[in-house]
Amino acid sequence: MITWGCQMNVYDSGRMADVLAPLGYQPTDAADGADMIILNTCHIRDKASEKVFSELGRLRVIQEAGATAGRRPILAVAGCVAQAEGAEILARAPFVDIVLGPQTYHRLPEMVARASRAAGAVIETDFPTEDKFDHLPEAAAPQGLTAFLTIQEGCDKFCSFCVVPYTRGAETSRSEATVIAEARRLVAQGSREITLLGQNVNAWHGLDDSGNPSSLGRLARKLAAIPGLDRIRYTTSHPRDMDDDLIRAHADVPQLMPFLHLPVQSGSDRILTAMNRKHTRDDYYRLVDRLRDARPDLALSSDFIVGHPGETEVDFEATMELIRRVEFASAFSFKYSPRPGTPASGAHSQIDEETKDRRLYALQDLLRQQQEAFNLSKEGETIEVLFTHPGRQPGQIGGRTPWLQPVHALGPESLIGHIVSVRIEKGRPNSLVATLNPEFAPA
Ligand code: 5AD
Ligand code: SF4
Q: H or E segment at 19?
């Protein structure tokens, strides 16, 4: 399985492995010799489909070599490129056996059966009426100390630049009971941190046991009651869906980590309107103030797009101003990339590449400085780290702070799986160096 794109694709790849396990399939990293190859694709930016076709060209060689040896592997394309360009994929790469959209992976065993009967290629890119989450197997492979849990999918916001509403469909939420059951299972399998996932995760309104729509703040409180679940995160949030109760949860629920990914995209009201973001710059400032009032140590990350159609120097400067004012602990930033079928792709006022490059460079430089300053601000502090893996150097262990900063320390591997108080000795651009507190006790 080759996975591109967001954490939701990582989660989906895990679930595809789960549905295929009863058929005898096991994940492998090597395409050579695999019985099936699945590309889980992303369509959000750049030449996504070209990347898929070039990978398919490479895999075709492996597939043909397998066929000569009498075991031709099944080739499947999943994810958002499959959803957006299903028929096109089969036209250009007729050796592909299965094309499946993100809503249909629970039907994968049936598709595999049809494909193995050599009945021609199978294509499933409908949004089925049944809920794929109701058709997942009971058994699932453990995810480890930190786990993903998709609770919401799809988007109703229709930002001018974005393909998600078309590839992932309308906003849907899993029920509270199924989410809590999955979280309990993950914790029983050893996960201590769960990141709740959704394209608009804070628009989650799954039904509670009485059949009433719940909210993410309430869900966070219920999940926090699961013994052994020490850290809860959620991503990605839309500023419009940050309700009072969720903000309050950041004050009341210690398991809710003080780090929030809250994309703003631009700091110019003119561009925010053109983007159909449904919030202003001041809305964002107010929201950040309320979040920081609730949880003073809350750190923020964000997504930014430079060069959206119509963006002037003044608009770009407004984005820089917003960054200076909010101060981000980390961020993702992108050059606007026209996506077929989205409103902005047809706009007349496209920005030239050189301007986009220049703006992206300046913006990333500022964001880099802020990230480094944030890391440096932790020097000398005592911070709880969830150690998750051996470090690169002998005797080192690695983990994450509550703010998702990678940390390394010299310490015994027996601390992996524990939350330990450490002293931060050094802040680096992308990580922290720590020493173990002499009086530490594994929590
Ligand atoms: N061009 C550039 N960036 C985009 N994103 C989404 N669509 C585009 C696009 N067409 C970015 C947004 C979003 C993140 C996941 O990807 O910043 O928040
Ligand atoms: Fe895309 Fe906007 Fe929906 Fe985010 S909120 S998934 S950027 S349309």
A: helix 7-20
Number of the ligand 2 atom closest to the C-alpha atom of 277: 2
Judge if the beta carbon of residue 258 lies within 6 A of ligand 2: no
CATH of the domain at 71: 3.40.50.12160
Tokens of 54: 């070039």
Q: How far away, in angstroms, is 263 Cα from ligand 2 center?
A: 9
Q: Domain ends where: 124, 154, 177?
A: 124
Element (H, E) at 48: helix 48-68
Average pLDDT, stretch 108-114?
90
DSSP reduced 3-state for 387:
strand
Same-domain status, 171 and 109: no
Quote the number of domains for the chain. 3
Pick from 361, 376, 391: which residue ends a domain?
Answer: 376
pTM: 0.92
| Cβ 162 under 6 angstroms from ligand 1 | yes
Provide the 3-class DSSP secondary structure of residue 197.
strand
Q: Looking at ligand 1, which residue's alpha carbon is closest to its atom 13? A: 303
Q: How far apart are CA 195 and CA 149, in angstroms?
A: 6
* Average pLDDT of span 412-433: 96
Question: Pairing mode, if any, of strands 146-150 and 152-153?
Answer: unpaired
Listed in sequence order, the residues at least 6 apart from 425 whose beta carbon sits closer than 8 Å to its beta carbon are: 379, 433, 434, 435
* β-pair partners for 330: 301
Range of the domain at 170: 132-376
* 105 lies in the same domain as 171: no
